[in-house]
Design brief:
elongated, three-stranded antiparallel sheet, Nucleotide Exchange Factor Grpe, Chain A, domain 2, alpha+beta, Hemagglutinin Ectodomain, Chain B, 4 helices
Amino acid sequence: MSDELHIEVQEPWAEAEPAGEAGEAEASPAPDPLAEAEAQRDEYLLGWQRTQADFDNYRKRALRDQQAFAARAAERLVTKLLPVLDDLERAIDAAEQHEEAKVIEGVEMTRSALAGALASEGLEEIRAEGVFDPHVHEALLTQPVEGVDSGVIVQVIQRGYRLGDVVLRPARVIVAE
């Protein structure tokens, strides 16, 4: 019985081989160019949709990462500023007791603590001495001053600060005329 089964399986193959190209042409119809184009279109569409979904996921992930980074940066700065808040509360308590020396000392300590916390984040004070530099100084007023060359800073109205290479606020100054 197994021999007969084996023969039956072999017979279609045996017939197909001698038939050659004529048998193959009859077995499979000619490819339909429209069907091939539609299949290729569907493949391209699927690839485009996958790429679009990947990009959308990347955009969402990048936005979440950016928000998390900003939250961590704010958290770090606030943590550094909390002791300054505590110092201010102590200065207010001292002011209520009318001890001027302690109030002034407390305010100076608070200013120092705040400056230290901001400096640790990269904040630098802009020097406002010598020659006026329009990149880091803002001239509010010019006035004639005896014995001082023109373009030299004579008074600082408001200190300026930079964070790294970025000027956050220019120093506001009075310049000799």
